[in-house]
Design goal:
Layout (H helix, E strand, L loop, with lengths): L13 H9 L22 E3 L2 E3 L4 E8 L14 E5 L2 E2 L2 E4 L7 E8 L8 H4 L16 E7 L3 E8 L3 H8 L10 H12 L7 E8 L11 H9 L4 E7 L1 H6 L3 E3 L2 H4 L6 H20 L3 E4 L2 H16 L2 E5 L7 E9 L6 E4 L2 E4 L10
Parallel strand pairs: 7-8, 7-10, 10-11, 11-13
Antiparallel strand pairs: 1-2, 3-14, 3-16, 4-5, 4-15, 6-14, 8-9, 12-13, 15-17
Helix pairs in contact: 1-5, 4-5, 5-8
Length: 352
């Protein structure tokens, strides 16, 4: 089992939050996509030359210059990773992420999203940037008050593109939390050696999720290796200003960011918080060209990440905060997962 997000919470209230999360109602089982031949449940995940076992945390990291270019050629000695403020022994795959991609595109179909259907109809060809490796594949999920599978995993973008051209307005609601949970389950059906990516195209706030609570989803994302790339539309932002880009760096560097702080943040901008926790990126757009540029950038960055792994020295179960930085200050923007979740069952000699 892979680990997820960060801890540090008031011990008096933490058990109550966890209990509330566990009691959340579950979504009906999805119809799982068929895994590629030759894969078996329980296999060790292999990403290029990097082996990720059940007691290692995978941290994809993007190191981007202020000019926008990616810094290449960094090695293990060039990175420092801290788990709850404590430096860890790490391994770094020096080549960029070359694994095939399993992509779920989740698009909102209700509310203001209807105004963006013309942009979504042009998304198909851009997905080829994610599917450059012939083994890569994508699935399409739509959602309003609940998620539903529009098209199962396919190796080409043509069928996804056709489905995007015929989106129908939803019945209302924007169940982002339920949809992300559904998408993570869908991605978990894919081979473990794949980079699992969720491209979430929606408004910023959740409306109507009933099957999963924020604390439960935080643990779920933190226990997975899913990279969330969020592209959000906002009529207010369209009127007030230019496109917004964020990576969650500020919170990743704040060791006092807790579950108690993140849960309320979900109510303000859940798409941004999900991206920050997973090590992905968040963009808000206002026009056609900006939308296309954000998708292109997200696809490029999905492949231009260093893969860092470490075995946590702190056995405390729950939420952990991760900070990744470089030994030398390049003035770069580092985008890496901010947190992970350590399961209680993974503690002790029997977990090794």
């Amino acid at each position: 089992m892979r680990f997820g997000l960060f801890r540090f919470f008031c011990f008096a209230t933490f058990p109550l939050l966890v209990a509330a999360a566990i009691s959340a109602q579950q979504l009906p089982p999805i119809e799982p996509a068929q895994p590629l031949p030759g894969t078996r449940a329980g296999d060790v995940a292999e990403i290029a030359t990097l082996h990720v076992t059940a007691n290692e945390v995978l941290v994809p990291a993007l190191v981007e210059k202020s000019s926008g270019g990616v810094i290449y050629g960094l090695k293990q000695k060039d990175f420092i990773l801290e788990d709850n403020g404590v430096p860890q022994k790490i391994r770094v795959q020096e080549e960029m992420d070359t694994a095939p991609v399993a992509l779920v595109v989740a698009v909102e179909q209700s509310g203001v999203s209807v105004l963006e259907f013309d942009k979504l109809a042009k998304l198909g060809p851009l997905l080829d940037l994610f599917l450059a490796d012939h083994r890569s594949q994508a699935a399409l999920v739509g959602f309003d008050a609940k998620p539903h599978l529009i098209h199962d995993f396919t190796h080409t973008s043509e069928e996804i593109n056709e489905a995007l051209k015929h989106l129908e307005p939803g019945a209302g609601g924007a169940a982002i939390l339920d949809t992300v949970s559904y998408a993570v389950d869908l991605l978990e059906t894919q081979p473990k050696e794949y980079r699992r990516v969720l491209l979430l195209i929606s408004e910023e706030r959740d409306h109507g999720s009933k099957h999963i609570k924020p604390a439960q989803l935080i643990a779920k994302i933190g226990g997975s290796d899913v990279l969330v790339l969020s592209v959000s539309f906002s009529p207010v932002r369209a009127e007030l200003g230019p496109d917004i880009k964020a990576s969650g760096d500020d919170r990743a560097m704040n060791l006092f960011s807790t579950l108690a702080m993140i849960v309320p943040a979900f109510k303000k901008n859940v798409s941004k918080e999900l991206a920050a926790m997973s090590g992905g990126e968040y963009h808000a757009f206002t026009g056609d060209k900006a939308f296309e540029a954000r998708i292109v950038e997200s696809a490029q960055h999905a492949h231009n990440r260093y893969l860092i792994t470490f075995s946590p020295t702190d056995p405390t179960p729950g939420l952990h905060t991760i900070r990744v930085r470089t030994v030398e200050d390049y003035g770069a923007r580092i985008v890496a997962r901010a947190n992970y979740w350590k399961e209680p069952s993974a503690v002790g000699p029997d977990a090794r």
